[in-house]
Amino acid sequence: MSELPGIVVNGASGRMGQMLVRLVSENPACRLVGALERAGHDWIGRDIGTAMGGAELGVTVTDDALDAMSRAQAVIDFTAPAATVPLAEIAAQARAVHVIGTTGLDEDDIAKLDAAARHAVMVRAGNMSFGVNLLTKLTETVARALDVEFDIEIVEAHHKHKVDAPSGTALMLGEAAAEGRGVRLTDVADRGRDGITGAREEGHIGFSAIRGGDIVGEHDVIFAGPGERIILRHVATDRAIFARGAVKAALWGIGRKPGAYDMMDVLGL
């Protein structure tokens, strides 16, 4: 058992964190060696299993990332930029794989993550599911095949507790569409329309966000041309698909050369 790769879960008390704890602890190919939470959290010092309402797992929740990472080959992180960015440096020091599903990262955050990735493996993606990554590949392919006569709109829906918009997945799809068109997303993105906005600008990529209820995640990429529309769609009904993808990414990254990777690399797409 001790020879199995050890994985730390950051943000262990959250919905994704608890799901990751369960999947890692039940996976015969790895072992849970750490559960991280922010300083002052009620779960600090408790066994993560009993804190989650189940049996003991032999792993105590801690806010000491350096200590937790000393026993790990990988860390999985679905938290917030303020937690993910400093953890990247610690993961790099430990030469541990850092799997990042955190969204809401800005350009400065990404620059810091890229610097850490020079020293260790980092797998970062706006979405870890197989289906969404296949959708991303299809989006790039369709965007490359169609000219600007086809307008591109990305519509996403998530639960009412999601704090960022557009979603990381929507932005990932937008980047794929822009890549297919041979342009920079930052130059053509329309991320909010309200009031008298004027006619849609040719070649732009639009984003719309829906928030409500317990929607896990729905993404539509619409190519609207004269007389016809092509709609690519992915609907997630269980967030376990993201957790399973993250565990797969963590195990895939162990032993690889330092660098910044994404789920396309993990899935060989």
TrEMBL record:
<feature type="domain" description="Dihydrodipicolinate reductase C-terminal">
    <location>
        <begin position="131"/>
        <end position="267"/>
    </location>
</feature>
<feature type="active site" description="Proton donor/acceptor">
    <location>
        <position position="158"/>
    </location>
</feature>
<dbReference type="GO" id="GO:0051287">
    <property type="term" value="F:NAD binding"/>
</dbReference>
<keyword id="KW-0963">Cytoplasm</keyword>
<keyword id="KW-0520">NAD</keyword>
<feature type="binding site">
    <location>
        <position position="159"/>
    </location>
    <ligand>
        <name>(S)-2,3,4,5-tetrahydrodipicolinate</name>
    </ligand>
</feature>
<comment type="function">
    <text>Catalyzes the conversion of 4-hydroxy-tetrahydrodipicolinate (HTPA) to tetrahydrodipicolinate.</text>
</comment>
<feature type="binding site">
    <location>
        <position position="38"/>
    </location>
    <ligand>
        <name>NADP(+)</name>
    </ligand>
</feature>
<feature type="binding site">
    <location>
        <begin position="168"/>
        <end position="169"/>
    </location>
    <ligand>
        <name>(S)-2,3,4,5-tetrahydrodipicolinate</name>
    </ligand>
</feature>
<comment type="pathway">
    <text>Amino-acid biosynthesis; L-lysine biosynthesis via DAP pathway; (S)-tetrahydrodipicolinate from L-aspartate: step 4/4.</text>
</comment>
<dbReference type="GO" id="GO:0005829">
    <property type="term" value="C:cytosol"/>
</dbReference>
<dbReference type="GO" id="GO:0016726">
    <property type="term" value="F:oxidoreductase activity, acting on CH or CH2 groups, NAD or NADP as acceptor"/>
</dbReference>
<feature type="binding site">
    <location>
        <begin position="11"/>
        <end position="16"/>
    </location>
    <ligand>
        <name>NAD(+)</name>
    </ligand>
</feature>
<dbReference type="GO" id="GO:0009089">
    <property type="term" value="P:lysine biosynthetic process via diaminopimelate"/>
</dbReference>
<dbReference type="GO" id="GO:0050661">
    <property type="term" value="F:NADP binding"/>
</dbReference>
<dbReference type="InterPro" id="IPR000846">
    <property type="entry name" value="DapB_N"/>
</dbReference>
<keyword id="KW-0220">Diaminopimelate biosynthesis</keyword>
<comment type="subunit">
    <text>Homotetramer.</text>
</comment>
<keyword id="KW-0457">Lysine biosynthesis</keyword>
<feature type="binding site">
    <location>
        <position position="37"/>
    </location>
    <ligand>
        <name>NAD(+)</name>
    </ligand>
</feature>
<dbReference type="GO" id="GO:0019877">
    <property type="term" value="P:diaminopimelate biosynthetic process"/>
</dbReference>
<feature type="binding site">
    <location>
        <begin position="101"/>
        <end position="103"/>
    </location>
    <ligand>
        <name>NAD(+)</name>
    </ligand>
</feature>
<dbReference type="Pfam" id="PF01113">
    <property type="entry name" value="DapB_N"/>
</dbReference>
<feature type="binding site">
    <location>
        <begin position="125"/>
        <end position="128"/>
    </location>
    <ligand>
        <name>NAD(+)</name>
    </ligand>
</feature>
<protein>
    <recommendedName>
        <fullName>4-hydroxy-tetrahydrodipicolinate reductase</fullName>
        <ecNumber>1.17.1.8</ecNumber>
    </recommendedName>
</protein>
<dbReference type="InterPro" id="IPR022663">
    <property type="entry name" value="DapB_C"/>
</dbReference>
<dbReference type="InterPro" id="IPR036291">
    <property type="entry name" value="NAD(P)-bd_dom_sf"/>
</dbReference>
<keyword id="KW-0560">Oxidoreductase</keyword>
<dbReference type="InterPro" id="IPR023940">
    <property type="entry name" value="DHDPR_bac"/>
</dbReference>
<keyword id="KW-0521">NADP</keyword>
<feature type="active site" description="Proton donor">
    <location>
        <position position="162"/>
    </location>
</feature>
<keyword id="KW-0028">Amino-acid biosynthesis</keyword>
<comment type="similarity">
    <text>Belongs to the DapB family.</text>
</comment>
<dbReference type="GO" id="GO:0008839">
    <property type="term" value="F:4-hydroxy-tetrahydrodipicolinate reductase"/>
</dbReference>
<dbReference type="InterPro" id="IPR022664">
    <property type="entry name" value="DapB_N_CS"/>
</dbReference>
<dbReference type="Pfam" id="PF05173">
    <property type="entry name" value="DapB_C"/>
</dbReference>
<feature type="domain" description="Dihydrodipicolinate reductase N-terminal">
    <location>
        <begin position="7"/>
        <end position="128"/>
    </location>
</feature>
